[in-house]
Amino acid sequence: MEDEIEKTLHSLDGIERAEPKPFLYTRIQGRIERRRADTYSRIWQLKPAYVIASVALLIVLNVAAILVYNRSHRQSDTARPSIDAMASDYGLSFDIQ
Amino acid sequence: METQELIVGLQRGSESAFRHLVDTYQRRVYNTVLAIVQHPDDADDVTQEVFMTVFESIRQFRGDAQLSTWLYRIATTRALEAYRKKHARKRFAFLTSLFGGQDDGNEPDDRLHPVDFDHPGIQLEQQERGRVLFAAINRLSDQQKVAFTLHHVEGLSYQEITDVMQTSFSSVESLLFRAKQNLRKQLRNYYYNA
């Protein structure tokens, strides 16, 4: 048995290098091209994220505009009585019959 | 083309330098990978990945190691990764089949049922013994498998293996000694049960 083991252990003596399939370089180039194309398509896949971010920004701007408008409108309502009093002092107020 | 010239060409993105690299080193890379993954199609796939890794990371190559040493290091790392990934997938498929899941049945777990692998470079009269030896090599630890493959399949010296594995000379000696011991033990079991 020991003889069998030694013979098997030495079965790789004189082994020659295995050859890859032909056109390895061409296949590697093809793979590089495919990986590049994948990278570009991944950038395109990111586009919806940009769209969502833009829509979100638009909504924030709109809400901000509404809030600013409401605040300024409320300020003009509180200023109204003093304007009326000043108008009556100067005899500028009138009632419509 | 001189090695230094080749490295400079690769770092500049020269297509002819890359072609030269593939032409020069493809057999060494493929042969190393094949001995580890023990499947020609997987070896072809991993060899392509090795050269793509070189293409993508050649700028990081500082020249502190030989180009061939660096290639062997990438090749052995990638081959071990591919081997582990494939067998983890197979073990998972085996487990799911145990729990009643669907197993395609096309690819048996060759750790449980070793697949016969014939290295095309082995002399015809040694093919049968080579098949038994490669099945035993498959059961070695990763480090022992790499050291044994580089020495006995690729013909690298102990010093070259030391550089590839980035370890000490005595560690390589010890790895090869233990690899042979483990192989003897496995072969003894094999011939005892045969």
Automatic annotation (TrEMBL), chain A:
Going by the entry's taxonomy, the superkingdom of the source organism is recorded as Bacteria
Query: What parts of the sequence cross the membrane?
Result: 49-70
What keywords would UniProt list here? Answer: Membrane, Transmembrane, Transmembrane helix
Write the protein's name: Uncharacterized protein
Species of origin: Arsenicibacter rosenii
TrEMBL record, chain B:
Alphabetically list the UniProt keywords: DNA-binding, Sigma factor, Transcription, Transcription regulation
Whether DNA-binding counts among this entry's keywords is yes
Q: Which organism is it from?
A: Arsenicibacter rosenii
**Which stretches make up the RNA polymerase sigma factor 70 region 4 type domain?**
135-183
Could you tell me what this protein is called? RNA polymerase sigma factor
The entry sums up its family as follows:
Belongs to the sigma-70 factor family. ECF subfamily.
Entry-linked CDD domains: Sigma70_r4
One record GO biological process:
DNA-templated transcription initiation
Q: Which residues form a coiled coil?
A: none
Question: SUPFAM superfamilies, from UniProt?
Answer: Sigma2 domain of RNA polymerase sigma factors, Sigma3 and sigma4 domains of RNA polymerase sigma factors
A GO molecular function annotation here is: sigma factor activity
Q: Where is the RNA polymerase sigma-70 region domain?
A: 21-87
